[in-house]
Amino acid sequence: MNADLPRLAVTAGEPAGIGAELLIRLAASPLAADLVAITDRALLERAAARCGTSIKLVDDDGSRQTTRRAGTLRLCPVPLAVAEVPGQPDPRNARHVLATLAEAADGCMAGRYAAVVTAPLQKSSINEAGIPFSGHTEFFAERAHADVVMMLASPELRVALATTHLPLAAVSAAITRAVLTRTLRIMHAELQNKFGIAAPRIAVLGLNPHAGEGGHLGREEIDTLIPVLDMLRGEGMRLLGPLPADTAFVPAQRQHYDAVLAMYHDQALPVLKSEAFDRTVNLTLGLPFIRTSVDHGTALDLAGTGRADPASLIAAATMAIDLIRRRNEWRGVRNE
Question: What are the φ and ψ backbone dihedral angles of 38, each rounded to 5 degrees?
Answer without folding.
Answer: -110, 95
